[in-house]
Amino acid sequence: MLINELSKKEIKEISKELAPKLTSHPAFMFYCKNGKNRQKFIEDYFCYFLNKWNKKQLIFTNESHDAIIALVDINEFHTKDKGISASKLKKYKNPYANVLYHQGNIAYLAEIVAPANIDTKIMTVYATLKNADIIESLVDEVVELSKKNNFMVVYETFSKKANEIMGKKGFETAYEKQFQGTQYFETVMTYYNHDWSAPAKLIDEFKPIVIDEEPEESEETEK
Measured between alpha carbons, how far is 180 from 184 in angstroms, rounded to an integer? Predict the structure, then answer.
């Protein structure tokens, strides 16, 4: 279901509920290599980003919050983080640097694979494949909304495991590369079923982003 607006209390509750379910999620394993701090990092991550996405972006979930799908405008995917919640997240120095690095790369790749100036949203699926049926249901909602509003969806993931699911939904692989010496596959897939009888929805401003330096990896984080 599409969430229209979350209260601060709901954001805290959902973040706390999601954190233990996503400790083996590939993105969070990459962000926070220190397993001892990962659950708390995930909780703080969602406390910040759910609040950041609230109202302005599109968030999908099921009633028990086993999965969250975020659809974020391409120009808002990698922007300056601020506020009290962001300060809490920034205390995790290397994990936070990894988040910024990853977001920058995805925004850059999305710029390459998306048609120039077409309304584009970057989709991230926060769920494990044991909830594949929930993922499929939520992606169906995303696809229908994309058709209705004529925007392109760029799906990003660190794993190839959900590619089959996305392929069945009409997504096509645009980029795939394994991080050398790791299990991570940076993967970008696209969905765009535009009704060509109507003009495409264009974005007013396009903001190119380039991240050219990878943060140092470390097991240490600050609490």
Answer: 8
**Type of residue found at 95:** P
User: What b/e sequence results for 135-144 when a residue is b if at least 16 CB atoms lie within 10 Å of its CB, and e otherwise?
Assistant: beebbeebbe
* Chain length of the chain: 223
CA–CA separation, 77 and 154 (whole Å): 11
- Provide the whole-model pTM: 0.85
d(CA 7, CA 156): 27
State phi, psi for 161 to the nearest 5 degrees: -65, -30
pLDDT, tens digit, for every residue of 166-220?
999 999 999 998 877 777 888 999 999 865 555 555 545 544 444 444 455 444 4
Describe the crossing of helices 35-53 and 93-113 by its angle, rounded to 10 degrees.
50
CA-to-CA separations, 215 to 93, 96, 101, in angstroms, rounded? 10, 10, 7
